[in-house]
Design brief:
Layout lengths: L2 H15 L1 E3 H8 L3 H13 L4 E3 L2 E3 L9 H4 L4 H12 L7 E4 L3 H15 L14 E5 L2 H7 L5 E5 L3 E3 L4 E3 L1 H7 L4 E7 L2 E3 L3 E4 L2 H12 L1 E7 L11 E4 L6 E4 L5 H9 L3 E4 L1
Parallel strand pairs: 4-5, 4-9, 5-6, 9-12, 12-14, 14-15
Antiparallel strand pairs: 1-3, 2-3, 7-8, 10-11, 11-13
Helix pairs in contact: 2-3, 5-6, 6-7
Length: 266
């Protein structure tokens, strides 16, 4: 197991339990306690956790894993979800993407779809195959090199955990655009409360993405189903399609269908 894999595993354990014990973590990861202590010390230096005698605790009550440590979780499911979501996006549409590991995969899947299309007009005259509006710096960085995709990046203050731009500057840009579709990654989906995320600033921006779009697609792996997070984005009545994996509980599928939401399980 590499250091990056150990760190991801440790942060996942911390997210689940709220605290870590060196000996228990060493047993779970099948490494020495000394290795775990070094890992925790380095993670504490990056302010990813708080070191305690014999272990570590999370920052605050609701712990959010930074994006770079979440990318390996449910990776194959997210790639299948992304491919299915990309099929729902039409040529020439204006697409809003918020931040997150699943929407990042959607951006990559969309780029692959439009990358092979041919245009007869010169680059400076041809209409873009797709316009993407995003508040995620990592998504903008990946798509900016794609000449057939027009990238619109919102302003705002960057959150280091998710690479998302938030705040009044972000709102100002989104209030001036009209979207065909918003593709939203979420941290939780509850049959009564709707979809949620960990941070209230990100929730307000994702809500605005949904309000500016003609249709809303939520992309999330089934582990988020029935889970709640701190900040509510919107209710089920604002969602048109949910793209998830085949692990979605039957009861949740039925509840979404009752709410008039199309469920695509891959």
């Amino acid at each position: 197991m590499s250091k990056h894999e150990r760190w991801s595993a440790l942060l996942e354990l911390l997210a689940a339990e709220g605290r870590l014990d060196v000996e228990e973590a060493a047993t779970a990861l099948e490494v020495s306690p000394a290795t775990i202590r070094r890992d925790l010390d380095e993670l504490a230096e990056q302010q990813m956790l708080v070191r305690t005698r014999g272990g570590a605790i999370a920052h605050g009550v609701s712990y959010e894993l930074p994006l770079r440590y979440k990318s390996a979780r449910h990776a194959s499911e997210k790639q299948r979800i992304a491919a299915a979501a990309a099929e729902l996006i039409g040529s020439g549409e204006v697409v809003g993407l918020n931040g997150g590991t699943t929407t990042t995969e959607v951006a990559r899947a969309v780029a692959l779809r439009v990358g092979g299309s041919r245009r007869d007009a010169p680059d400076h005259l041809a209409a873009p195959a797709l316009t993407v509006v995003t508040n995620a710096l990592n998504i903008a960085g990946e798509l900016a090199v794609r000449p057939q995709i027009k990238i619109v990046v919102t302003g705002g203050v960057a959150r280091p955990q998710s690479y998302e731009l938030v705040g009044p500057l972000t709102v100002g840009v989104l209030n001036e655009v009209v979207l065909d579709v918003a593709v939203l990654g979420v941290d939780g989906m509850d049959p009564h409360l709707g979809v949620m995320t960990h941070h209230e600033d990100e929730a307000s921006i994702s809500r605005l993405f949904a309000q500016r779009a003609q249709r809303v697609i939520v992309v999330t792996d089934s582990s988020k189903m029935g889970r709640r997070a701190f900040a509510r984005i919107c209710g089920l009545d604002s969602i048109d399609v949910v793209v998830t994996d085949s692990g979605i509980p039957a009861a949740m599928t039925a509840r979404l269908a009752d709410a008039g939401i199309k469920v695509v399980a891959v």
